[in-house]
Write the structure tokens for this entry.
Amino acid sequence: MNTLALIAFALWALFMRSLPKIMEFMKLRQWSASIAGPTISELIENVKKGQILTWFEELRKKHGRTFRIWFGKDLMVFFTDPEDVKQLLGNNNLLYKSGNYKILHPWLGKGLLTNGGDAWHTRRKFLTPAFHFRILSEFKEPMEENCRILSRRLDEKLNGEAFDIYPYITLFALDVICETAMGIKKNAQMQSESDYVQAVQQICHILHKRSFSFWQRNNPFFKFTQDGRKRDACLKILHSETNRVIKLRRKMLQDANITNMQQAEKSCDSFGQKKRFAFLDMLLISQMEGVPLTDRDIREEVDTFMFEGHDTTSSALGFALYLLSQHPDIQKQAYEEAASMAGREKESMPYLEAILKETLRLYPSVPFYSRAVKEDLQVGELTVPKGTSVSILTYLVHRDDRYYPDPEKFDPSRYFKNEKDLHPFSFVAFSAGPRNCIGQKFAMLEMKCTLSHLLRNFEFLPVKDFKPKLLPELVLKSGNGIIVCIKRRS
């Protein structure tokens, strides 16, 4: 009898503890009936088809510019109107990422991408100087060195046959980010089978698969599944390597007797050249200066920069090369600007920058991103209740025909014709407001250097009937690669 009483008491206590969440869920279920959206069976059916972005377009046509989707027990409201996006991204109280970012925690922990609130704000304020353009410009040299390796690799494809250029771009971007974030040469372009390279690629695929899985999204036993074991194997490789490099770079700084940023700025190598410091070095020096950063904090920020800085950039570069291969007249103008500005990519390159912006409009590296609603939120005439998540559907914001006539057309010149008429939040590839992308200047510099170098060396030719099959993983990719032909510039 006592045992039954204890069980009953435990169940009652568990119910009472869960009651606030149950009440919140019931409130959300009731509220969601007032806003249009698909059924869960429609979600499962379209995830299986693998055409999520096409489905989102259909949902906007059917339900309007705002619609909702239930992801299991999680309610997400999608916004595609720039005016609503302005209210969301400009809101200083909407600083927490939504629950679906939790799948990144085992890898990135509480880094800048996944953290929120005051903890995020403190870290963001501290990290901002590390992304000052003066510092970033020092990274141009490793970018150019890796561009030369990329060109040598592409020389193998001058036989006129169509090939997938995306793996070459991905390994190039990984080399750049390893050198600029961690200060090490990974030689991914020459050693594509390395455990580290494979781990980065595999974990991105596993995390995307889980984020759209109705069954695995909130599965507390995920780590015991086949994908969970693969993820943990990848994490062991990734975290071990970052920890190893942290120790290596700390010893390097100690051997050079560098204990503060002032000493670092004055330091030179044995040839009298100013030393170049990686993002990791800046974090380690800040730690020595007394900034409250543990080694784990440092690892989380470096891993975040590694993830955000290579996958997003390679996505944009891949789609840019595809679009240029399909539009020889635009490619010709881009080549002429690149040839005239060779070596001066840190300066303004209006046409190349317009090409990159138009590429990111059509193929935003992050096609949607979301925030958690901690208190009831007013967006236009809609009151979004606490406990909901809101998502900016960048892919459709960028296809608003009120601001982009003929929105599916690749037209860099539109930024010279009517940019002043665009809604300031009709382009949000790098987000906007207080949580905008801290690395956007780094990304633009890398993409400009890379495109400029490639255009000066190669002409990119179209492949008949090829069209990318868009796959919104954690980062937008093409499920069938980026197929092009190339030939050397004479």
